Amino acid sequence: MERRTLFNGRLLPAVLVLPQLAITILFFILPAYKAFAESVRATDAFGLHTSFVGFANFLHLARSNLYQHAMIRTGVFCVAVTVLAMAAGLVLAVFADRAIKGRAIYRTLLIWPYAIAPAIASVIFVFLLQPQIGLITNLLGRLGIDFDYATNGGQAFLLIILIAAWKQVSYNFIFYVAGLQSVPRSVIEAATLDGARGFHRFRTMIWPLLTPTTFFLIIVNFVYAAFDTFALIFALTAGGPGTATETLVVKVYRDGVINLDLGGSAAQSVILMAIIVGLTAIQFRYTGKRAVS
Q: Which spans are transmembrane here (predicted)?
């Protein structure tokens, strides 16, 4: 039976909601309004003169080959990071869910990477893979393997995919462990008695029960790869060499802060905001239906 808390007046509920409402207005509504206002203007590099240009900034982005390439690059990056991070998280969760000695210690160690800040993670990999002083780079050089992400765009793009996926594995691991623990043991025991074992039992019995968790993680990982990897990418490659690792969120910073194209950068921000709102809406809509069914 559902229980609800009833308030006698309207003042107390308003006071309880006010802090969250203030945070939402201050850190989301106002910046979103400012971004949209700037996206329909053209501003000089010094910010002294502005003029209304309507949707000209958006039309320029639609015709820009650089923006289209950044869009494709971001799509490939998001898919690769999502697949690698989720696959690794699922495999580790399956092994950690088994009745083995020291299981709690293994789970704790696997969660630790998620607590590392993206910029710190980039610094760690710089010490490991920097072309001149990197420990792993020097080892690869002794083996005759030339690795230099500072000049090789393909290697740099592959590197940020691997680091971003590694950073997100722990998040997926947590949710998959929780999902595996919610699977009724009676279902697993019944499947075992029917002769379903190993991968066949996982594919036919356990994996379908993890579908809601998987869909939730797909959306979360896409959002993470598209928006939360800025610090990681910028600290490691700054979007280079050239534009090899310039995703949409890095391009917003480059165009707005470095190139001082405020209107174009704001238009890109509005597009990014529309994408994340759309992904979030899909997540809530689909997850709600799955929960009801």
A: 12-33, 74-96, 108-129, 206-227, 266-286
DSSP secondary structure string, 158-200?
HHHHHHHHHHHHHHHHHHHHHHHHTS-HHHHHHHHHTT--HHH
User: Residues 84, 173: contact at Cβ < 8 Å?
Assistant: no
Question: Residue 133: what residue type?
Answer: I
Instruction: Report CA Rg, the chain.
Output: 24
160 neighbors 73 (Cβ within 8 angstroms)? no
Cβ(95)–Cβ(80) below 8 Å:
no
**Residue 227, Cβ neighbours under 10 Å: how many?**
19
User: Which tens digit of pLDDT belongs to each residue from 232-264?
Assistant: 899 888 888 889 999 999 999 998 888 888 889
Q: Which two tokens stand for residue 203?
A: 């594919």
Hunting for tokens 């106002």 — which residue is that?
30
DSSP letters, 16-40, are HHHHHHHHHIIIIIHHHHHHHHHHT
Q: In angstroms, how far apart are the furthest CA atoms of the chain?
A: 76
Which of 26-35, 117-126, 181-190 shows the highest mean pLDDT? 26-35
Residues 45/222, Cβ–Cβ less than 8 Å: no
